[in-house]
Design goal:
heterodimer, A: alpha+beta, 3 strands, elongated, B: alpha/beta, two-stranded antiparallel ribbon, about 25% strand, ligase (chain A)
């Protein structure tokens, strides 16, 4: 089973890297971009086929290591 | 007086930490490898700067979960003096021993230079040898020193006198223009609720010898000795 984790900065947390990317896009002529937020995508290859068990385990991984919940939110997709 | 320096792979300031602690305490600190599970009995533990685990995932995230950090957390709870500098500060926040997080500098640049800092609270075991409002000069060298915490946490830190150091200019002016890296409220260093754990981005251990260009950092280490004796 595969787990896909998206880690994104919480609302209200400034994202200087996203801002720099936004500026660069504008410099390339992409005028229609209102905002850029940069995050992380983490793909995990998991044992077993119990989706709920996997979800609980990946949630624990996010809380303990993959995300810093002071500044980041995360979402989990299983497939 | 005994001290220990925690060493993680990728740390590169441990020898500066050792020199500063030895100068202040008169005894060479014990170096403890991250894979150890036990700490020697010491009065002071220092988590030095560098790039533990190559700053992978987030600065300090991996180091914060290494075996020795469980022992460090126990000592923190027991009231042992713990000083985290630069990557050490990042590691202590990731380990939950200090609130907030260190994010990428607002300029996105690695900043390596000397900076002025205002000592906001001298009633701590880290700063008792300084005068309140004193402006000191320490080097900084970091890419991720932009301190972030939510407003509630920031207000609590301020209200409890836990903001120990702020970025400022030579006259002690603290404002957006003298904010080195975008940190909330110019915060450069904070202590925990019990007052025994300090995390700071600047490097006092690199301001202890005239050959460093200044000795403003000496009083920080002297404070630790004073507090413990």
């Amino acid at each position: 089973m595969k787990a896909r984790v998206h880690v994104t900065l919480k609302n209200g947390v400034l994202d200087p890297q996203g801002k720099a990317v936004h500026h660069a896009l504008q410099g390339l002529g992409f005028a229609g971009v209102n905002d850029v937020r940069q995050g992380k995508f983490i793909e995990l290859e998991l044992d077993g086929s119990d989706v709920e068990k996997a979800r609980a385990e990946v949630k624990e991984m996010c809380e303990k290591l993959l995300a810093n919940t002071v500044i980041e939110d995360y979402s989990i997709e299983l497939a | 007086m005994k001290s220990a320096v925690i060493l993680f792979p990728g740390i590169n300031r441990e020898n500066d930490a050792i020199a500063a602690l030895e100068q202040a305490t008169g005894t060479k600190p014990t170096v403890v490898w991250h894979g150890e599970t036990e700490l020697p009995k010491t009065d002071i533990i220092m988590v030095p700067g560098g790039f533990s685990y190559g700053d992978y995932l987030r600065c300090g995230a991996m180091a914060a979960k290494s075996p020795i950090m469980r022992a460090v957390a126990e000592r923190a709870k027991a009231g042992v003096t713990i000083l985290g500098v630069c990557n050490g500060f990042q590691i202590l926040t990731e380990a939950g021993l200090l609130p907030g997080a260190l994010m990428r500098n607002a300029s996105l640049k690695f900043i390596c230079k000397n900076t002025r800092l205002k000592i906001e609270n001298t009633n701590t075991r880290f700063t008792n040898q300084y005068k309140t409002g004193e402006v000191v000069d320490y080097p900084v060298a970091h890419h991720d020193g932009n301190f972030f915490a939510d407003r509630e946490t920031l207000d609590r830190l301020e209200g409890e006198g836990r903001v120990v150091l702020r970025y400022c200019d030579a006259n002690g002016v603290v404002d957006p223009a003298t904010n080195l890296n975008g940190s909330q409220r110019n915060i450069a260093g904070i202590i925990n609720e019990a007052g025994n754990v300090l995390g700071m981005m600047p490097h006092p251990e690199n301001a202890i010898d005239p050959l460093h260009g200044g000795t403003d950092g000496r009083n920080l280490f002297k404070s630790l000795v004073e507090a413990a004796s």
